[in-house]
Amino acid sequence: MKTVVRSRVVLVLALGVLGGSIAVFATVTGVTAAVTPPAEHEFAIDGGQLVETSGERDRTVVADLRTVERVEIAGRGSHLVVTTTPREPIELSLATRERAKEIVTTTGAFADESTPEGAVYTIRPIPESVRSDTAAVAGADPGTVWTQLAPANDSAFTLRERADGVVVERTERRMSDRRALVVVDPVERATRYSVVVDLENETVDAFVRLREGASGSPRGR
Q1: Where in the chain is the domain with CATH 3.10.450.40?
Q2: Which of 27, 63, 89, 100 is deepest in the core (most CB within 10 A)?
Q3: How does pLDDT run across 90-131, given as a tens digit for each residue?
Q4: CA dihedral in degrees (128, 132, 135, 136; nearest 10)?
Q5: How far is it, in rounded angstroms, from Cα 45 to Cα 35?
Q6: Separation between Cα atoms, residue 171 and residue 205, nearest integer Å
Q7: Which 3 state secondary structure label does DSSP give 53?
Q8: Dihedral sign, CA of 65, 66, 67, 69?
Q9: How far is residue 97's CA from residue 103's CA, in Å, rounded to a whole number?
Q10: Considering only CA atoms, which of 202, 197, 174 is closest in space to residue 184?
């Protein structure tokens, strides 16, 4: 079952008159696929990807929509050109970052361990739709890319038609104004702490500790 942008994005480019010629899907990084063009093109969001669905087989146009802010699909002669705009991270204000750090260091977030003095603190916003425990687990994993917390379904994008094609654009990114994610990497400990703080109540919503070399999943409380 596919999740579809407005039921189905249909882009009519009158490419059927080209007979056996080739339509090329291109992005800012180069050619990604080539097919004999049908009379019209249909696109859908499926599993976090933007796919072209009008042929016998689905073809991936954008592999990971979590990293994308905007997609432009347009006809250029015999070519179908797809251009993507990367999604830039949202930064919290300095005052918010300082407040979040203070909550972590003064509310006993580290429980049985003392607050690390020499540490690198990384403070990130949290999308409203993401649960605190999910954000804390993501923050504890060094391999997590921050865009993985971004939604990539049809409700996260809007469609706008143009004379030569369509624009698929991310809707306004709603970040929580109540919560923040604080990742703490102590300089002299092989441990990472990931804490979600409640900025309004100055409390800890979720806490995960990951020790380097430890087996199993990150430990939370």
Answers
A1: 94-150+173-220
A2: 100
A3: 889 999 999 999 999 887 766 555 566 688 999 999 988 889
A4: 160
A5: 19
A6: 27
A7: coil
A8: positive
A9: 10
A10: 197
